[in-house]
User: What shape does this take?
Amino acid sequence: MTFPTTPARRVRRWAGAAAVPLAAALVLTGCTGDGQRPVSDETSEPTRTASPEPTEEPTTDPSSEPTTDPTTSPDDGTVVPLYFAGDGPGGTALFREFRRVEGDPLTEAARIVAGGGEPGDPDYRTLWPQVEIASVQATDGVLLVEVPSDGFTERPDGMSKRDARLALQQLVYTLQGVQQERVPVQFQREGDAPLFGLPTTTPYEAGNALRTLNLVNITSPAEGDTVTGDTLTVTGVANSFEASGPCRLLQDGQEIALEGYQSEGWMEERLFPFEVDLPLDGVTGEVVVQCETDDPTGGTEGNGPAIDTKTIRIAG
Assistant: This one.
């Protein structure tokens, strides 16, 4: 994806690894290997409206697990992470967004992912046909997902085997994030029937993050937010060459600001938090925030950068 690089207001051009040092108030951890766990961050919110505040997710070291429960009350519900599919440079990948739900957080999050709701970002989608989820319970060291319907024992038309696996990973990543525990997810069906042609006789771990997640994901602002002020603070997670990449502000297809982010690391099987400020002097109306991984070959090799975008409104 290429955009014009017209001069911008108070823009400091991105310089790869020499970009502005990170000044983040974020926490992101995971672990490596086939049992890759969900990524997480704790964000500091810009001045904005419309979107809920994210909660913490699992961390690598059990001693550093969150010590407080997600904020829950009968009035405001619970903010949960949800993983949806989107287009990555190498094919379909998972992106995360946050949603406020009422009722049991595990069950409600599972129902949304399993086709019972739409993502907030129109660039995202669920890979699930609408499948009934009766309940999700934390029991016996697993998150037990009860799927009472006898449908979809095989893949529906148009679903590839890779998409079937990725659909299950949508739910695994989501439920582990909601639970804030790195525990496997067990699907329970009558007679141990398969789901999308995949076995349900053994629990599922979260897949390797670098093969499952899009390698950049904007956490804030969220899609549809309204923000005010002279500066927009963008937070997210990424795994990019030399831990750096660009974040752009686009309006009517024109680049009006560009800053480089510096994440907390790279070269590990996880994503790392970043934070960057984009100037908003004189900017009003609808804009697109676009963050990318670095593409050191300039598009001459590979599939190009991973990209995530959020369309927001700047209030005058």
